[in-house]
């Protein structure tokens, strides 16, 4: 798939995100918009996933993901992005995005397997847990002789959770070299900038000291750069060490007034703001 | 009173370890993890025979629970192991989100539960874990009573689909159950049929209840003793059937009175059939250092306490 096509999908996903959070007047648009390019690049190009279609023409989803690359979302609050990408990729009907955060929906505020939404393998939302789960699945792949990769996305604020560092210590020790941990490095968290709330210092140096390979994707909202970075990442795998990617993103990317601050971490746009946001995001695949 | 004898005393954790050895040989999907307590959990043989199916996490229980969830996603049946204190309260949120809510086929197997951990004292003597795990939706909670039952439960859990918490202990205790028993999750075991009082016991307290039953028999009291090895799902049918007959209850557990087996039974009775109940349990207190038998006595968990409670609850019958 060409960069232009991926960028078009990203535009539609961003439309979905702002419409979803507007539709229920809650949710987290900031981080969702910031990581849109990454998830689109992963799901529509970089990850090998089972393309078989089943009931209703949707992708068939297998929990164990044998023979597939697997993605885990640890910072579960950017669920609007996850849901939109899963729907647009074909796991379920995009019309279901309208049920986000509403009663009796499979699209819970934070992702869950509890409602059996295809594409989701573990609940997330309580931060710090995703990398441990990803390691477990990466180990299962090794036991199964499956050479596919496991990706996990975490927030940079999430790096303040202790469990992250338990996992960070385990992965190199056990040579989990089929694990790609991506940190959404947007420098923002709920109470302010990460530097101000709890300075993470040099994350790359920390991971390096723990035994990881590290790399940057400096322009995490430039599709071409994201794709290039993910390609490079693949070449680094399978050599005895896990890989950490520091993905430099802008919270709220794609909607000018949502960018550059933590204020849109967990706030929904009103009607006027929604219209202003949509005006900046071409409708490419048709709104749900 | 049915006669129970034993020829040897063994720790329940060895029942777990030997169960794992057997699973290692019979079920290629079973894997185990440990947070730096392999010797205590008795999984040495499993690890020796299946080194690729063991994952040492170091002293990092939160990560261990998450990795177990991930291994379950990949189709394996993980048994993460540690002390009960570090496999419940310390990692409650990891169990809740990554395992129970996510419906992962993880068998949390924990040793050194309760006061009988002994000399290490209150920091390690978890007495709230049954309450925590019982409160968690989608969690099966099992507390077997001797070596044979623990081994049988360990084997049964590999065939059971869903999250589970298997709790056992450190000290050697009489081995009195059938070595070839079939462990049925959620099915109470009738230890002794009686008509005057229902004694429901779990874990190490089952043997104490048997000793109490013998003393009560000498006093002309015919106690019904039932082993509730599965705290959740609770065998409410067996409990109600017994209490409808005896009209009074003594619940026995090496755990806080708050939220454990006794409360589970009380909830069943309150909503179905009212009957007086006495608790043999720790009464809103932490433990302390000491020998297991000394602690059981000091905290009121020995057979003589069960006898007293039985006499008291019989006198409360209307």
Structure description:
- The complex is a heterodimer of chains A (288) and B (318).
- Chain A has helices at 3-24, 29-34, 36-46, 79-89, 130-143, 162-173, 194-198, 203-210, 223-236, 271-279; strands at residues 70-73, 150-155, 179-185, 188-189, 192-193, 213-217, 243-248.
- With 288 residues, chain A is of the alpha/beta class.
- Chain A has a single domain (3-279), classed as Rossmann fold (3-Layer(aba) Sandwich), CATH 3.40.50.
- In chain A, the strands form two sheets. Chain A has a five-stranded parallel β-sheet, with helices on both faces. Chain A has a two-stranded antiparallel ribbon with strand order 4-5.
- The longest helix of chain A has 22 residues, at 3-24.
- Chain B has two domains: 9-174, Rossmann fold (3-Layer(aba) Sandwich), CATH 3.40.50; 189-315, Rossmann fold (3-Layer(aba) Sandwich).
- Chain B has twelve helices and 14 strands.
- Chain B has helices at residues 12-26, 38-41, 44-49, 61-73, 92-100, 129-135, 147-159, 205-218, 236-246, 261-272, 292-298, 303-315, and strands at 9-11, 30-34, 54-56, 77-83, 107-111, 140-142, 164-167, 172-174, 189-192, 197-201, 223-227, 230-232, 249-256, 277-282.
- Chain B has a seven-stranded mixed β-sheet with strand order 3-2-4-5-7-6-12, with helices on both faces. Chain B has a five-stranded mixed β-sheet with strand order 9-11-10-13-14, sandwiched between helices.
- In chain B, strand 4, helix 5 (92-100) and strand 5 form a beta-alpha-beta unit.
- Chain B is globular, with a radius of gyration of 19 Å.
- Chain B starts with 8 loop residues before the first strand and ends with a helix.
- The model of chain B has no long low-confidence stretch (mean pLDDT 98).
- The chains are: A alpha/beta (288), B alpha/beta (318).
CATH superfamily of chain A: Thiamin diphosphate (ThDP)-binding fold, Pyr/PP domains
CATH architecture of the largest domain in chain B: 3-Layer(aba) Sandwich
Largest interface: A-B, 37 and 32 residues
Query: CATH class of the largest domain in chain B, anyone?
Result: Alpha Beta
Return the string of H and E elements of chain A.
Answer: HHHEHHEHEEEHHEHEH
- Under CATH at level 1, the class of chain A stands as Alpha Beta
Percentage of residues in DSSP E strands of chain A: 5-15%
Distance between the termini of chain B: 25 Å
What's the β-strand tally of chain A?
7
Q: Looking at the structure, what is the overall shape of chain B?
A: globular
User: CATH homologous superfamily of the largest domain in chain B?
Assistant: Thiamin diphosphate (ThDP)-binding fold, Pyr/PP domains
Major beta-sheet overview of chain A: 5 strands, parallel
Count of helix runs of chain B: 12
Q: Compute the gyration radius of chain B: what is it?
A: 19 Å
As residue ranges, the low-confidence spans of chain A are: none
What is the helix fraction of residues of chain B, given as a range?
A: 25-40%
Please provide the ordered H/E string of secondary-structure elements of chain B.
EHEHHEHEHEHEHEEEEHEEHEHEHH
Instruction: Output the strand order for the largest sheet of chain A.
Output: 1-2-3-7-6
Strand content of chain B: 15-25%
Counted up, domains of chain B total 2
Query: What's the count of strands of chain B?
Result: 14
């Amino acid at each position: 798939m060409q960069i232009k096509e991926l960028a078009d999908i990203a535009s539609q996903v961003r439309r979905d995100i702002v419409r979803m959070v507007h539709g229920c007047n809650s949710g987290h648009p900031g981080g969702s918009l910031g990581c849109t390019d990454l998830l689109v690049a992963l799901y529509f190009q970089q990850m090998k996933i089972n393309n078989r279609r089943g009931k209703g023409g949707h992708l068939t989803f297998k929990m164990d993901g044998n023979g597939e690359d697997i993605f885990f979302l640890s910072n579960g609050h950017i669920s609007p992005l996850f849901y939109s990408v899963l729907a647009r990729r074909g796991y379920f009907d995009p019309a279901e995005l309208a049920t986000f955060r509403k009663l009796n929906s499979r699209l819970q505020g934070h992702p869950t397997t509890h409602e059996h939404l295809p594409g989701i393998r573990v609940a997330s939302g309580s931060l710090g847990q995703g990398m441990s789960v990803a390691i477990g699945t990466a180990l299962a792949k090794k036991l199964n002789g499956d050479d596919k990769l496991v990706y996990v996305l975490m927030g940079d604020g999430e790096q303040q959770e202790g469990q992250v560092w338990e996992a960070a210590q385990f992965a190199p020790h056990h040579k989990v070299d089929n694990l790609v941990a991506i940190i959404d490095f947007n420098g923002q968290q709920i109470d302010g900038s990460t530097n101000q709330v709890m300075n993470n210092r040099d994350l790359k140096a920390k991971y390096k000291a723990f035994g990881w390979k590290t790399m940057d994707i400096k322009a995490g909202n430039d599709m071409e750069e994201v794709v290039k970075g993910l390609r490079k990442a693949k070449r680094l795998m399978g050599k005895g060490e896990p890989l950490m990617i520091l993905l430099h993103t802008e919270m709220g990317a794609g909607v000018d007034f949502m960018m550059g601050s933590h204020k849109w971490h967990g706030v929904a746009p009103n009607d006027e703001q929604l219209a202003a946001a949509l005006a900046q995001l071409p409708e490419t695949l048709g709104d749900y | 009173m049915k006669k129970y004898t034993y020829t040897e005393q063994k720790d329940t954790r060895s029942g777990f370890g030997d169960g794992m050895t057997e699973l290692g040989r019979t079920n290629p999907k079973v894997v185990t993890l440990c947070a730096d307590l392999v010797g205590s959990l008795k999984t040495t043989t499993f690890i020796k025979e299946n080194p690729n199916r063991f994952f040492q996490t170091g002293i990092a229980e939160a990560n261990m629970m998450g990795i177990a969830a991930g291994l379950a996603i990949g189709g394996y049946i993980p048994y993460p192991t540690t002390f009960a204190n570090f496999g419940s309260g310390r990692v409650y949120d990891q169990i809740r989100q990554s395992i129970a809510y996510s419906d992962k086929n993880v068998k949390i197997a924990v040793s050194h539960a309760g006061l009988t951990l002994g000399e290490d004292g209150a920091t390690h003597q978890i007495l709230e874990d049954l309450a925590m795990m019982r409160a968690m939706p989608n969690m099966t909670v099992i507390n077997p009573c001797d070596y044979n039952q623990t081994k049988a439960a360990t084997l049964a859990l590999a065939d059971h689909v869903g999250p589970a918490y298997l709790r056992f202990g450190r000290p050697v205790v009489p081995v009195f159950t059938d070595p070839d028993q079939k462990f049925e999750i959620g099915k109470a075991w009738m230890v002794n049929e009686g008509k005057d009082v229902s004694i429901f016991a779990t874990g190490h307290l089952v043997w104490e209840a048997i000793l109490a039953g013998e003393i009560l028999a000498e006093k002309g009291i015919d106690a019904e003793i039932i082993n509730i090895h599965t705290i959740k799902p609770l065998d409410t049918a067996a409990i109600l059937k017994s209490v409808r007959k005896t009209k009074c209850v003594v619940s026995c557990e090496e755990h806080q009175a708050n939220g454990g087996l006794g409360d589970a039974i009380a909830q069943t009775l309150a909503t179905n059939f009212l009957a007086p109940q006495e608790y043999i349990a720790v009464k809103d207190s932490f433990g302390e250092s000491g020998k297991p038998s000394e602690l059981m006595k000091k905290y009121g968990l020995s057979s003589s306490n069960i006898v007293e409670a039985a006499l008291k609850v019989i006198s409360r019958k209307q």
